[in-house]
Amino acid sequence: MAAELPDAPHLDPLAREALQLPDDRRLARIDRDLWIGYGRALDIGQRLERILQSGRRMRPDNLLVVGPSNNGKTAIARHFVARHTPPEDPGAERATIPVALIQAPNGPRIPQLLSAILAALGRPPLAWRSTAQLRAEAHRAMADVGLRLLLVDDLHNIRGSRCAPMLVELREIGSCTGVSLGGFATREIVDVLRQDEQLANRMAPCPLPRWRLDDPDYARLLATFARYLPLRRPSGLTHPDLAARLLAAADGLIGGVAAALRRAAAEAVRTGHECIDDTMLARPGVLEPPAWAEVAAAGNL
């Protein structure tokens, strides 16, 4: 007979189960990544899904998600890839990889871009290759595994004084292989794409702005966090004053909100307070600025 779950109707059943764990394991549960499918993230996922399923391969559709750093772009990309990673088939002659995610190289370095694609497809180059050889191998590998959508995180990193050849390389991935591109970048990518009008015209922009207090999605986001953080008492995260404090401390970024909530929940477990409220937000280190901000402001360093 299954053990009866603790009486905590404010929590999701999985979070209620976590209340039975020792505190050290409950703290570990709090500190792990938590995917929350809020409205804008779901919309981006649906747009990527339409691109993935599209039959247009001669000039495939592309998407460019643009937003500030620490606002959930990488989480969206990784979640989409995880949803579309097929189970391993030991009997298959070759792997099927419909979606792959790579990190953009630091600067307009075409060999690093092509090597990253090969590594993501399970075929890292084992010896020195010319750019032409890497290109041929990458295009062949994309065809072999059935790649349809290549996601490139931190695409703004390709900016540099000689970026034009890199932009042509990205454009020709679609032209030569029929693979769509999904870019994730900060606003610096706008200046980069101005150097290649053809590629810019093929990238449909999708903004991911900072959160606002009056955004209904923000209240739903906080309510979801409250259901999944395993605390014994309800947390009034959607209270206007508390929600505003969180958003201001996070500078409107979902990554900052999530980090502050994890720190506050950990404090609530350690102190036995068992909920997030103004008392927990006032604890040292919960809403304090990042350590780098303190270092930059220090006058004696």
Automatic annotation (TrEMBL):
InterPro entries: P-loop_NTPase (IPR027417), TniB (IPR008868). It holds the Pfam family TniB. It comes from the Bacteria. This is Transposase. It comes from Roseicella aquatilis. The lineage of its organism: Bacteria, Pseudomonadati, Pseudomonadota, Alphaproteobacteria, Acetobacterales.
